[in-house]
Structure formats: structure tokens, C-alpha cells
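Reading a protein record of the kind used here takes little practice once its layout is understood. The reader may check this reading against the record printed directly beneath this paragraph.
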Amino acid sequence: MSKVSYYTAEGLKKLRDELNQLKDVERPKASQAIAEARDKGDLSENAEYDAAKEAQGMLEMRISKLEEVVANARIIDESQLDTSKVLVHSNVKIKNQSTGAQMQYKLVAQSEADLKSGKISVDSPIGKGLLGKKVGETAEISVPNGTMKFEVLEITRD
């Protein structure tokens, strides 16, 4: 069974662009590489042919996975988001209760996650721990070296 994922319009456009690139550019390149390797003689001892077939298989697997993700993607209208609790596409400001450090993240689908730009996956331990929390509540998140506690300071949308 496929899992529905929620995206911004920009995030879904990136996925569709990548899928089109793979189908329209990379797939013909893979076919061409196989044809060139096939022309080089005996296929039973042709490592180039085997490598080209392997690369094609990996490409087709990636295309299939992206097609499934795109088919099950839903766009969220961020203007309609409830800011009373942490949801997908919420911007959340949190405070680490042990260090006092404050951080701000946007919770996004796994394929949109980019820690450098402050986007974390709702499937990550922190993302899962924050979902459903309200301002003032504490999220206790299990990590490999114990439990971290984050206080939700603010919830906004873009």
C-alpha cells in the first residue's frame, strides 16, 4: 500500500521535474549505452554490457519509485494550516531544555527535507516527536544516547 505524502507546490514541481529528466533524458542515454555495448561483441563476456544493464535497472527502479511518490502526493494549502499545533508544513520554534538552545524548523515530507535550509522530515525522530504538540508543550524525543526534551515556543506558517 502506498503512503500519501504532503508537499508544497514547489516541492512537488521539483519531484515532477526530476521524474521528467529521468524519463526524457536519462532513459534514452541508458538505452544508447546498452546498444553501444551490445555492438562490441559477445555478450557473455562483455562487462560493459552488464554494467549498462545494471545501470538501466537502477534507473528504472528510481523512475518507478518517483512515479509512485508523485501519484500519491498531495499539495497542502499552507494558508489553511492550523497554527494551534504542529502539523506538516508548520514552522516551529523549539528550545532544547537541557542546553537552552533555540532552533527553528519547518516540518516537510521526507523528500523535501534539507537540514541546511531548516527543513526536517516529519518522519525523523524530532519531526515525529513534534507532531501534534502545542505552544508551551514539551516533546520528549528518544535518541540513541537518551531522551531529549524540546519545548515548543512558537508555531507559524510561511
